[in-house]
């Protein structure tokens, strides 16, 4: 929800998907349009999003 209870819609410039949460839009763009995988430097595992890589790094040694 935006200010004063209004939702702020954000439209993806690449495909037209409309989302009301900027964080969800960021994730959408990473997964749907970012062809580059995020790679763990320690073990070489690949992930679709930087968030998945960040979570993986907590347990990767």
TrEMBL record:
SUPFAM superfamilies: beta-beta-alpha zinc fingers (SSF57667). Gene3D superfamilies: Classic Zinc Finger. Pfam families: zf-C2H2. InterPro entries: Znf_C2H2_sf, Znf_C2H2_type. Residues 10-38 form the C2H2-type domain. This is C2H2-type domain-containing protein. It comes from Candidatus Nitrosarchaeum limnium SFB1.
């Amino acid at each position: 929800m935006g200010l004063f209870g209004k939702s702020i819609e954000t439209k993806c410039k690449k495909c037209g998907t409309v989302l009301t949460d900027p964080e969800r839009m960021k994730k959408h763009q990473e997964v749907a349009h970012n062809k580059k995988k995020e790679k763990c430097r320690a073990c070489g595992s690949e992930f679709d999003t930087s968030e998945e890589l960040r979570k993986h790094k907590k347990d990767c040694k």
